[in-house]
Amino acid sequence: MPSDPPAEAALPDGRPAADVLAELRALREGDAPTRGGRTFAYVYDAGLEGLDELAAEAYAAFATVNGLDPTVFPSVARLENDLIGAVAALLGAPGAQGSFTSGGTESILLAVKTARDHARAVRGISRPQLVLPATAHAAFHKAAAYLGVEPVVVPVDPDTCRADADAMAAALTDRTALVVASAPSYAHGVVDPVAEIAAAAAGRGALCHVDACIGGWILPYLRRAGRQVQPFDLSVPGVTSLSVDLHKYAYADKGASVLLHRDAELRRHQYFAHAGWPGYPVVNPTVQGTKSAGLLAQAWAVLRHVGEDGYTALAGRVADASDRLLTGLRATGGVRVLGDPAAGLVAFTVLGPGDDGAPDLSLLLHLADEMRALGWYLQPQLSFDGLPPNLHLTLTPATVGQVDALLEDLGTALTAARSLEPVTVDPALAELAAGLDPRALGPDEVAAVLAFAGLGEGGALPGRMAPVLVLLDALPDGLKERLLAEFVGSVFRI
C-alpha cells in the first residue's frame, strides 16, 4: 500500500542561536521604547543602571524551577514567603497572608473568587454581587464574568473622579460579597475614600478589596519621602484584601503581583484543591498550576537590591516629576487636569474653543497623534458616563529628566492640533450604530464596520488614530467591545 505523504514541516530547519536572537532584536525595533522615559503607559522604568541585567540573571537562575510544588522545590516557598513578608510589612496587619501572582488581573480574579466562595460558605449567598465604582479596573468585570458574580457599578463624583462613598454604601445589599476601592484608580490616578467604603462594607458583613495594583508599592514610600498619603491599606478597619503589582512601582519585570489577605482563613477561600482524579493531589493557591519560578526570583532580587532607602528615593523622583508636570499642564491654556493625582498617574483633557469650556475629543486625539509623531506615547482614554475623554500619563523615575521636553513638545503639538480640521462622526451613522445588535452581526458585517472605522485586516492601523477613536467614542459600549474583540482577533491570526 502506498504510504501517506510526509506532513508539512511545522518549523524551518534549525538555525544558529545568534541568528535567532538577531531576529528577535529586529522585531523589537518596531515596538515603543520601554526605557528612556518617552512611553507614558504600560512600562515602569526605575532608571537604575544594572537593574534589568540583575532581573534577567535572577530569572535565568530559576527559569527551569517549577513553582507548582514547593515540597519538591523548597526555594520557591522561601522566595515567596520573603516577598509576601515584605508586602505585609509595608501594607499589612498582624497575621496578614498572601500569594505571589502573575499580575494585577490574576490578583483581582483571585480576590473576587475569595469573596464569592466566602459569601457562599460563610453567609449562604447563592447569587453574590460585586459593588464597584465606575472607575474600578476592567479586570473586576472580567473576574465577575468568569466567576458568575453580578457587578453593581456605582457612578463616581464627576469633579474629583473619586468613588462616592455614600452612593457606594447605598448600593450595598444582603447579596453583596465584595466592595471595591482603588488606590489609585488607573484612569485618573486618584485615591478613593477607602476608610468610608471599607466601613460601609464591614457594616453589611461584606469583604472589601483595595485595588492598589498601581499605588500599593509607591504610596507608602511617598509617605516616607514626606508626602501626605491617606490611609488605604490593611491597617484601615474593614479592608480585607489588597492587591499590589511589583512589576509597577517596585520595578520588577512583568508579571509579578501580590494578593494580600487580612488572615489565613480568608486566603483559604482563594485556594483550589482537588483529589478526585487518579493523578497527584492538586492544590493551587493561584490560577496557574505549573509556572516558572523565574518571575518570582527576579522580583525577589529586584526588591532586595533596591531596598528601603532606594524605593524612598525613587518615589521622591516620581513625586518631583509629577509636581513639575502638573504645574506645566495647569499653566497650559486649554488644558485641564482631572481630579487630584496622587501616585504618579496623571490624566488631562483639552478644552475646545467655545465659551462653555467643554472637552474637545477631536482636538484631544489630534494632540495624541501629534505627540506620537514627536516621539511621545500618551495613552488616549475615551469619554465614559459623564467623565471626559483624556490623555493618560504614567510617570516613573526615568521621566524626571523628560518633563521639560515633554511640556515643550506638548505646546508645539497643541498648536498643530488646533490647526487641523476637526474629526466628526456622521450623526446618521451614529444613529444607525446605536440600533445595531452586536451579537447579531455576522463576520462580513463586522469586517465592513472595522474597515469603515479604519481598523484594517491583519491588525493594520492607520497612521493617525484620531478618526478611529472619535468613531469608537460614538459607538455604544456593546458594539465597541465587539469590534475591539474582532480587531484583536485579526491581530492574532495566522
TrEMBL record:
It holds the Pfam family Pyridoxal_deC. Its cofactor is pyridoxal 5'-phosphate. The keyword Lyase applies. Transmembrane segments: none annotated. Keywords: Lyase, Pyridoxal phosphate. Belongs to the group II decarboxylase family. Sphingosine-1-phosphate lyase subfamily. This is Pyridoxal phosphate-dependent decarboxylase family protein. It comes from Streptomyces flavovirens.
